[in-house]
Amino acid sequence: MGKSRGIESRQLESIKSGMAEFYTPQSSNETMLVQIAANTVDDLFVHRYQTDQLLVVRGSFVLVTLEDRQYRYTLMSDRLPMVVTIPRGVLHGAINLTNEPCLLVNAVLRHGPTHERDYRPIKRPFPYDLEKVQALMKQLDQPVTV
Fold first, then answer.
1. Which pLDDT value is given to residue 143?
2. Under 8 Å CB-to-CB from 104, ≥6 apart: which residues?
3. 146 pLDDT exceeds 60?
4. Which of 27, 37, 76, 122 has the highest CB neighbour number within 10 Å of its CB?
5. How far apart are CA 46 and CA 76, in angstroms?
6. Alpha carbon of 22 to those of 12, 13, 27, 120: distances in Å?
7. pLDDT class for 144, splitting at 50, 70, 90?
8. Could you give the CA distance from residue 35 to residue 32 in angstroms, rounded to a whole number?
C-alpha cells in the first residue's frame, strides 16, 4: 500500500473456508500482544535491534512515525486488515483517541539482543497534529476525544 523510508503498509490476503477467513501469516522471531489504552497519546520509541510488524486485531489507533523531521500518521484498525512494518532505527509512537483500548499483534523480527533503551519513551521534539489524527479516525466513524 504505502511506503516511506522503509516503513511499509500492506493489505493482508486471505482465504475463506466455510465461515472462517484465514489471513496471511507473518514470519517472526517472537510475537507480542500489545494493548494501547483508550484516550492515549504516547511518546516516541526507537528499536535498535528489531523490526516491528504490526497488525490490529481489535479497535483502532494512529501510528506516528518521525521521518525527515516530519510526523507521518497511519490509521490502523481491525476494519482495515493490514500489516505495517517499522524497521529498526525509526522513531514511532501511538495515538488512541477512542474510548476503547486497541489490541494488536507485533510479529517482531530480531536483529540482535533487546537493547535496554528500546522500550524507554523519547520526548517528542514537537507536538503531534491531533487535528490530523482526528480526521483520520473520523474515516472510520469513530467517536474521538481530545
1. 60
2. 33, 34, 35, 36, 54, 55, 56, 57, 61, 76
3. no
4. 76
5. 19
6. 10, 8, 15, 35
7. low
8. 10
